[in-house]
Amino acid sequence: MSPLNFTHILTQAVDELSAPESYEGLFLRHIEGDPLPSGRALRRIVDLARAILFPGYFGNSTVNSRTLPYHIGVNIEQLFEELTGQVLAALCLADNRVEEGRNEALHQLAAERAARFVSTLPRLRRLLAADVQAAYNGDPAAHSFGEVISCYPAIRAIGNYRIAHELLLLDVPLIPRIITEMAHSETGIDIHPGAQIGEYFTIDHGTGVVIGETCIIGRNVKLYQGVTLGAKSFPLDADGNPIKGIPRHPILEDDVIVYSNATILGRITVGRGAVVGGNIWVTEDVPAGARIVQRK
């Protein structure tokens, strides 16, 4: 094939890809000068949060009790600045108005939400400390809290989820989903930031776990690998489109255990202290204290 023919092929591809009907819904038309969220920056933000929440395990490994306030102060200042920039980018992406003072107002809103997120970090540390303890107490192969914090994919995924969930509660668009999807790609654990998960939560092994947006999970719940907490069906509106935002995922009350590859679908309740065995399909309520297993 001659170079001329190559040119024709390339030109035709450009023409086809530039046709409006080819990029409908796929072309981001943002206002010139507005920032865009950065995956690299969000990874730095998550790393900074980990260094604050688990000092010594992440970030500067030479930190000690004497230098801890300094290191946390530096990390929080950097976290606040970088998070403000990323929240601003997300707000700009969600707001396509062109009006005087818009950017200044959005920057102020972004700084406020970033500061409010920083204020949640002490509570996040308490929650994650309980999650680490749950993982350690629930796994005889765990030899120390340090091993759990450093090695267990569940702690990485739950940590990202808890950060993302707080940002979602602060009405930060897009970023919470990016943060949980980072953990999903790293660990194979898919937790939607909209799920509500109580303290002392753990996932053993974790690969293939899916927790849907409207799940409510109580305290001291343990899941094993391959568990799906999903939706059974998607109600449609008058035009045949899925109705979004309605409760459609399971509720797991306190002290529930769900073993590997169980699939629990729909807005059903698994009662307190119930045990759901492995490889089971559950679409009806499970009474408190029940033990659901496969029939022999």
From TrEMBL:
One of its GO terms (molecular function) is acyltransferase activity. The keyword Amino-acid biosynthesis applies. It comes from the Bacteria. GO terms for biological process: amino acid biosynthetic process. CDD domains: LbH_SAT (cd03354). Transmembrane segments: none annotated. Keywords: Acyltransferase, Amino-acid biosynthesis, Transferase. InterPro entries: LbH_SAT, Ser_AcTrfase_N_sf, Trimer_LpxA-like_sf. This is Serine acetyltransferase.
